[in-house]
Amino acid sequence: MASRKLITLDEFTIEETRKFPKATGELSALLRDISLASKMINKQVRKAGLVDILGKHGATNVQGEEQMKLDVYSNDTLISVLKNSADCAGVASEENDNELCFDDSFSHDSKYVVLFDPLDGSSNIDVNAPIGTIFAIYRRVSPLGKPVTKEDFLQPGNKLMAAGYVIYGSSTMMVYATRIGVNGFTLEPSIGEFCLSHPDIKCPEKGKIYSVNQGNSAKYDDRLLAYLGYCMENKKEEGRPYSHRYIGSMVADMHRTLIKGGIFMYPADSSSPKGKLRLQYECNPMAFLIEAAGGVASDGKGNILDIIPTELHQRTPIFIGSKSMVNKALEFVANKETVV
Ligand code: AHM
Ligand code: MG
Question: What is the pTM of this model?
């Protein structure tokens, strides 16, 4: 339908806020700020291939501006947009050792903190594969009127108010979740707005794709190897073998898992007993989002969202995606008796 009305991210979040008489609109404003930062990041990501023409990182371009590494630019952009936001009291980022608690009178009265990985999968920039920004929004637990504290950032995922990602792929999309559901917005470049393109996303209950860095197999334990054997087993009547897809960019692998169904894993192995991915700004936001879409996320023992964080940058193993596939994987990895 050519005349179908475009619904922008702003229009959508305001409409959603109206469903809750007590909502103040602060969360919508914060999502707008995150989308603004991601549009700025998107602009730089789209120029990444021209780096030899526009100047190498660290060099000065013709306008006299210093070219920045994209992950540094993304981090600085998110921090400065959120520092200027009326609704963000502080941030924590993969790129910073410690949380940043904004110390100005506006921020003292702001209700939310945001944790993010500004440019996840940045090693994929050189090969033009999708990369992304991941974000998690918590309501502060410390009293208003003062700077936020560490405990505001060390909340379990089950306390998240909203979370999501922006994928810089063949198109740029923002996908975010609140407790009531998951919606996807595609950036319409001609008007510079994210427009609703994927309403009420549900992760299919079953899938046909498993996603893991199988090159690490020599370091996996027998239970996990048994599950990978199950994925590869020839059982046509049960839809196996599954296809294997692994981009090595969590946002891209998760976006496919969300839309098409499947399982994404970054397990513990003998050299990384806690896995690789970070709980607070990679696994929790993805777990919150996949649960809101009807999927499941586990660390192999329990729900990712129930882990009580003790450090900002802690890691966790993760098994995430379609409900029936993750539950099957957990039968193998969580319970020795089922291993053949
Ligand atoms: P990064 O935060 O340093 O970019 O690393 C995280 C990325 C994820 O996007 C991806 O799932 C994973 O690392 C891939 O790791 P590996 O190359 O070990 O398979
Ligand atoms: Mg990362």
Answer: 0.94
